[in-house]
Amino acid sequence: MRERLKNSLNKLPVLLVATLLTIVTLAAQSLDVPDWQTAAGGKLSFEVASVKPTKLMRPPNFPLDSGNAVAAGGRFSAVMPLLVYIFFAYKVDGNGDQARTALSQMPKDVTAGLFEIEARAGGNATKDQMRLMMQSLLAERFKLGIHFETREVSAMALTLDKPGKLGPKLRPHSEGPPCPDYKGIDPASRPEPPKPGDPFPPQCDVSQLQPKPDGTTRSGSRNTTPQLLARDITTLGFMSGEVDKPVVDRTGLSDRFDYVLEWSGLSFGPPPPGAAAPPPTDAAGTTFLQAVREQLGLKLVLTRAPVRTLVIDHVEMPSEN
Question: Which of 232, 251, 235 is nearest to 243 (CA)?
Fold first, then answer.
């Protein structure tokens, strides 16, 4: 199964690399106009925007994750495949099924390309407001037309490994450190990097992925819901080559949680020349699903579930700036 999944991932090299640079999480919402979109203000547009094809990928200037923190001073800057921008704009889950379905509906010249997008919003917009602006930009420049369909598909149910018991790295948010008050603060002015001993991630309501010098990977989120955790596991499992189906929450939990997950299996490139080999850690040799079970006290069980699926009706190469 693992080898077959790796072979299928090889067909999506550009998408996979982009996903490694940022977590594009969140399954599609249950309504055609989801609550987050209404709360963010409906239809919005960037004040200025530039779109052009290019060849060298560049990560975004802020993580395209599931949170709604204030974006980087109202500025958007990245070089990514178009599908990454679409998933960000509509808060779509980045799992393998969703990606393959979308890619099959797009012209090859569009799916094979990288696009530089430089844009600025009026004021210090939130991520959800930036998503709405990106929707308008994609419709205008790529002539993107989409709709959603609810389909009964094969999925993985996220459940407790042992009834009533959480893992050591999954705990109620109320038992952890409080969230910092970043409201109205330009992200560029926040202290970086975090000090040793600071909670990970330093900010609440975002998912963060961090490669470590020892070759392991750390991910985490604070003040997250079980539903968002399931979506993180969808994307992280896809990146690790161990999950190729959407993950749905069946934990029965209703609180908000903090979690940290460490495992090996993702490659972020070789260490710098001359760098000393880091000491092994407890996560060395730990697979992603093994970490989910041992550290979070959760497991995945095959099931079927209704999943909101993005359908691309039309898309073109972008118009000139």
Answer: 235
Residue 184 lies in a domain: yes
Strand order across the 257-264 sheet: 170-172, 257-264, 216-224, 207-211
* Separation between Cα atoms, residue 221 and residue 208, nearest integer Å: 6
Residues 127 and 184 in one domain: no
User: Which region, left, alpha or beta, applies to residue 285 given φ > 0 means left and ψ of -120 to 50 means alpha?
Assistant: left
pLDDT digits (tens, 9 = 90+) for 85-108: 999 999 887 666 777 788 888 998
pTM passes above 0.70: no
pLDDT of res. 266: 66
- CA-only gyration radius of the chain, Å: 19
Residue 182: its pLDDT value, please? Answer: 62
The number of distinct structural domains making up the chain is 2
**What are the pLDDT digits (tens) for 40-85?**
888 999 999 999 999 998 889 888 877 787 888 899 999 999 999 9
Where would I find the H helices in 22-112? Answer: 35-40, 82-90, 96-104, 108-111
Name residues of the chain where pLDDT drops below 50: 1-31, 267-272, 275-280
Q: From 100, 124, 148, give the residue that closes a domain.
A: 148
Q: Rounded to an integer, what distance in angstroms lies between the CA atom of residue 320 and that of residue 166? A: 53
Six-digit token string for 125: 């917009």
- Range(s) of the domain holding residue 67: 2-148
Question: Quick one: 32 and 87 in the same domain?
Answer: yes
100 phi/psi in degrees, rounded to 5? -65, -40
Burial of residue 161, with CB atoms counted within 10 A of its CB: 0-12 exposed, 13-18 middle, 19 or more buried: middle
Contact in structure between 303 and 248 (CB atoms under 8 Å): yes
